[in-house]
Design brief:
Strand content: under 5%
Radius of gyration: 18 Å
Distance between the termini: 47 Å
Structural class: mainly alpha
Length: 108
């Protein structure tokens, strides 16, 4: 018969899995736009140039992503701190953040 692990060990494993997912998602959304073109994908700029529209914002509008990625990275690092991993807030928000970061990486 298999020995059951203590509940505390299972919770720590879930915290570690969630924290890892948040960190990987944050890294993925930052790296995806740089990696995609190296794998043969067209850049977003190339697609925009190919399909001009009056609704397309000027290039400077995309600069907002720098602070957004910086804030997401800071949130991921903060969540990975040993004293933060097991807080109720991190447990409630972590998987949502990981999903949002992964979705943004996939969209890129």
């Amino acid at each position: 018969m298999a020995m059951m692990r203590p509940a505390a060990a299972r919770i720590v494993d879930r915290d570690l899995a969630r924290t890892t997912a948040v960190l990987l998602g944050a890294a993925g959304q930052v790296l995806a736009p740089a990696v995609g073109p190296r794998l043969g994908q067209r850049t977003i700029g190339a697609v925009i140039d190919e399909h001009p529209s009056v609704l397309t914002p000027p290039d400077a509008a995309f600069a907002v992503w720098g602070p957004i990625f910086l804030a997401c990275t800071a949130a991921a690092v903060q969540q990975a701190l040993p004293g933060e991993r097991r807080t109720d807030l991190q447990r409630r928000a972590g998987w949502w953040l990981a999903g949002a970061y992964a979705g943004n990486a996939a969209w890129s």
